[in-house]
Amino acid sequence: MSDLSSHRYEPIAVSPESTVVAEFIPDEDTETAYQSEADLEREFIALLQSQAYEYLPIVTEAQLIANLRAQLEALNGITFSDTEWDSFFTDKIAGANEGIVEKTVRIQEDYVQILKRDDGSTKNVKLIDKTNVHNNRLHVINQYELGQGEGGAARSNRYDVTILVNGLPLAHIELKRRGVDIREAFNQIDRYQRDSFWSGSGLFEYVQLFVISNGTLTKYYSNTTRRQHVSESTGAKRGRKTSNSFEFTS
């Protein structure tokens, strides 16, 4: 009798003729305090790893570029010479005079770029495989760091979690501990955009999707949509909604 009293049953279907019930087993509550931002980050990375994302300990631009080269070689079944890679990276990926819009067009539409080889021949190089999507390699990195002045960065910044697709950062997640307004994560990404995403080779301008979360509430928005709203808010009349109003987050 005591064993039965410890069980809880909830109705899942009720009609005049019958009632269907199921046993309800609550999740064990082991939390004794608010989850810290570091704990949330570790839990999120572990979740991604369980879904076949490989973790890479990349924290500098040099490591990011070296991994990008390795991933594109693997995707395309080629080996760049140093001369080929320097030229391809400078002209076909980094684009010194390119910004968010140009890099978005490249990853969305012009994702096959032409490599001129040392012997004078040419070869198509895919940045992403949109025909056989399982050929793309997914990685997760965290705590990527840029020092003040590094690559022209206005301030030192350390990013939370970034998802790489074939070595290119295409999604970025900024986290705050539970109980903290996720607007703080939004504002932090806004600061990264001003201070450092464009610095160095500007690879973080390839980010297509931003996610902000405090472990309870989560929102997302695209890089180009954010840029459009920021542009439209320039010189806006007092009282008009701007990018900081969250109107374009979902």
UniProtKB/TrEMBL annotation:
Q: Which residues form the Restriction endonuclease type I HsdR N-terminal domain?
A: 34-228
- Disordered: where is this region? 231-250
Name the catalysed reactions. Endonucleolytic cleavage of DNA to give random double-stranded fragments with terminal 5'-phosphates, ATP is simultaneously hydrolyzed
EC number(s): the record gives 3.1.21.3
| Entry's family note | Belongs to the HsdR family.
InterPro entries from the UniProt entry: Restrct_endonuc_type1_HsdR_N, Type-I_R_enzyme_R_subunit
Which organism is the protein's source?
Kribbella sancticallisti
EC top class, as a word? hydrolase
Which domain of life does the protein's organism represent?
A: Bacteria
Q: What is this protein called?
A: type I site-specific deoxyribonuclease
Q: Which UniProt keywords apply?
A: ATP-binding, DNA-binding, Endonuclease, Hydrolase, Nuclease, Nucleotide-binding, Restriction system
